[in-house]
Amino acid sequence: MSVKKGTAAVWAGEGNVNTKGAATTPIVNSVAFSYTDLDEWYAVATGKSPGYIYSRNTNPTVAALEEKIRVLEGAEAATAFSTGMAAISNSLFTFLTAGKKVISIKDSYGGTSKLFLDFLPKYGINVTLCETTDHEALEAAIAGGCDVLYLETPTNPTLKIVDIKRLAAAAKKVGAITLVDNTFATPINQNPLELGADLVIHSATKFLCGHSDAMGGLIAGSKQLVDKVFAFREINGASLQADPAYMIARGMKTLELRIERQNASAMRIAQWLQGHPKIKAVYYPGLESHEGHAIAKSQMRGFGGMMSFSLDGGYDLVSAFLPALKLAHLAASLGSVSTLAGPPRTTSHVELTPEQRALLGIPEGLIRYSVGIENVDDLLDDLDQALKRL
Ligand SMILES: *Cc1c(COP(=O)(O)O)cnc(C)c1O
Prior knowledge:
Elements: H1 5-11, H2 38-45, H3 60-72, E1 77-81, H4 84-95, E2 101-105, H5 110-119, E3 126-130, H6 135-143, E4 148-152, H7 164-173, E5 177-181, H8 186-189, E6 199-203, E7 217-221, H9 223-236, H10 242-252, H11 255-274, E8 279-283, H12 293-299, E9 306-311, H13 315-321, E10 329-330, E11 340-342, H14 354-359, E12 366-370, H15 376-388
Bound molecules: pyridoxal-5'-phosphate (PLP).
């Protein structure tokens, strides 16, 4: 059929792109997928045949990313979200309804704490937050009955460590499922499912993407649990788009290289800071002086690129020290190729009021430091010159 220019501009060249053999996953930005066979369309739409219908539900580029985290976390299934918070809130709201109970720790990520403190209670969900490293208190609370145990380790921003194996076993005894935010460790350093967790959650915005240029969230676990969260996500619409999915998948190709480097650099920096007279405390699970070191050693293969430290003084010193750093973006976020630093009150826990931060035991004078992939000697020199100015 010969058509006029306006029609040709719309239809010519469409639908015949052969991407077979492409050395990287193509970015498929199509919102919908068309079928010439109505029976096949129906079979795919009703889940009887594999395929794609509409990208709020599934998309081939997003599926490639989901497959990466599924394999890296040793899971049966995985699904992606628009952000890490979308992954967390969708998971919590899937398994928790009015009258149900969730037990968690005081040190979870700021946005997650906000869900526990402000949002879940509004829906009639019972929330109990325990002292993060008090395993006896956590076990006692769990033994009293709960539906969901929600953990994060290492925690944000003081790098506390919780024993996944021990607490997941306690949860299993009362028929509760265990969700673990594995953002700080990444699957290179820690695999919560191997330790007994039921669902592992990531803010893919951080180490997985690794370049501070795309946002996303991921969960992985049994097909039964992931399917339940997926059913909620496809309706509430917190889906990941193909473009950021591609960016995150591309970042993940170098995940092991970056994490090995960041593990090694963070360890050297933590040791150096620990011996510095102007530093009051260093929080890094790789240090033998860290209260959670033994548990960290038993459940992690590396201690990660995140640390925090406090200066021997108040917030005044923090505001003099941070701008003196030349090789650190003073910015929220973490896990990037470039070093990032900031106080929790403007980064991880900005959502909270000063009272809520105090309640969670987060010192106002703390500095969170996310080690990048720069040469570690330069990072040490930079910290040294900034400390000398104080
Ligand atoms: C950043 C972060 C989140 C939230 O992820 P977003 O992608 O910003 O929504 C959740 N958990 C941890 C540990 C984080 O660092």
